[in-house]
Amino acid sequence: HMQTVFLKDLVSAVAPTNPYSFVNYLVKHKKFYRFLTSRLRTVSREEFSDYLRWAAEDMNNLYFSHTVENIDFDKKSRLFLVQTSRGEYFARNICLGTGKQPYLPPCVKHVTQSCFHASEMNLRRPDLSGKRITVVGGGQSGADLFLNALRGEWGEAAEINWVSRRNNFNALDEAAFADEYFTPEYISGFSGL
């Protein structure tokens, strides 16, 4: 499941009646009442991904699978010139989506049956029964893997170790302070720094 509430979608905080809201997605896909009666504050990652795909398919100003070759800022027009493999575009703002790039530390020369990236967990569905396992990485993915291993989702492991290069484990913060990131006051204050 997502770690944030569904109202932190593409538009609801700014324009709750916007046609690209998650609630409108639920209505358009005839899922609203099922969602309403489920009393969930969060949704599955798959459902939210489907929502984002639905919104993106209706917009004609999103460009996927373009190789960006160069970005320049034109001081005179105060616009970015983005040169891609498929043409040039001007933009006031730029948001880059680099995709998922699994990171394996240099000590891991090869992905094997017993050493692999978290993104492969659902594909492999390994049997960890009686095995000593180590989760490397202190972020949200590491926290999810550790918790699922601890709960025995892939069998009862004999030993579970969790290591990170960070000085703390950094799962997504669910505290009220983290919700401040989504308020107009926080955004105004942060952008003024």
TrEMBL record:
This is Lysine 6-monooxygenase. PANTHER family: L-ORNITHINE N(5)-MONOOXYGENASE, MONOOXYGENASE. InterPro entries: FAD/NAD-bd_sf, Lys/Orn_oxygenase. It holds the Pfam family Lys_Orn_oxgnase. The lineage of its organism: Bacteria, Pseudomonadati, Pseudomonadota, Gammaproteobacteria, Enterobacterales. The keyword ATP-binding does not apply. It comes from Escherichia coli. Pathway: Siderophore biosynthesis. GO terms for molecular function: monooxygenase activity. Its cofactor is FAD. It comes from the Bacteria. Keywords: FAD, Flavoprotein, Monooxygenase, NADP, Oxidoreductase. Belongs to the lysine N(6)-hydroxylase/L-ornithine N(5)-oxygenase family.
